[in-house]
Amino acid sequence: MKKIVGELIDGYKDKPIVLDVFFEETNKSKPIVIFSHGFKGFKDWGHFNKVAEEFASAGFVFVKFNYSHNGTTPENPNDFVDLEAFGNNNLLMELEELGLVLDHVLSPDYEFRNEIDKGNVSLIGHSRGGGIVTIKAFEDDRVSKLVCWASVSNFDQRIPKSSGEIWKKNGVMIVPNARTNVDMPIYYQMYESYYANHKRLSVPDAMKRLAKPVLLIQGSEDEAVLQKEAEQLKNWNNTAKLLIIKEAGHTFGIRHPFVPEDYTIYAENVVNESITFINSN
User: Would you say the pTM of this structure is higher than 0.85?
Assistant: First the structure.
C-alpha cells in the first residue's frame, strides 16, 4: 500500500494544508474519497489512519487532511499547538480549503493522476466536517457522492445569533478541550464570517437541493450531535439513506490515542457501510 503522508499544499493566510493519500498502486483509475475531520479534530485522530487503510484495501484512493487553521502544524500534526490559528479558523475557510484539496488531487498535473477516477469522487465528513462536505457536495459538480458521519444539521445551532453581542464584546469565546484540558479560543471573526456568508454556509439549503447519492450514518447514543439532526437531514432530502448505529456514540466508540485492539464493531460497521454505499451507486 502506498502512503503519501504529510504533503503540504497552500492554505489560507500563509498556513499549509497537510495532506495524506492512501492507495494500492496499480496504475489504474480508482474511485477517490476525500475525508473532512470535524471540530477539534485532525487527520490522524483516533482510527483515521486505519480508516484510510481500509478504504485503500477496498480499492479506493483515500485522502485525509488537516485544515490549515485547525490548530495543528506540519511539525505537530497530532497536537493543538497553534491556538492562535485555531481561534482564527472559520467555516468559510474550511469550505474553501476543501475545494483546494479537490483542486490538488484532481489536477491534470497531479503526480498520481493515473490512479484516480475523476468521475467517481466521494466526500466523507465527520461532525462539523459533515456540514462542510454537504455544502461542497452541493456546490461542486466534481463531487459524485456524499457520506456524513454524525453530521451537524445546521451551523446556526453552533453559532447562534444570540451569542453575537457578548462574543463581540469579549472578542473571543473559550471552548474547553476535555481530552487535553486546554482552553481553546474562537475569535469573534468566526461569528462575523458565518453571518456574512450565511446563505452559502446553510447546511439545510444544501441538503434540500442536493441531487446526488447521500448516506447519513448516526449513532443512537450520540450526545454531541443528536439523532434528531440526522433525521432532520433525511427529512430535507428524502432520497438520502439514513443508517442508525444502535448504542454508538459520536465517535462510534473510538478514542484518541488509538490502538488496533480498540477498533469497535460500530466503527467497523460505519466503514463497511460507507464502502458498500459508494460502490453501489
Answer: yes
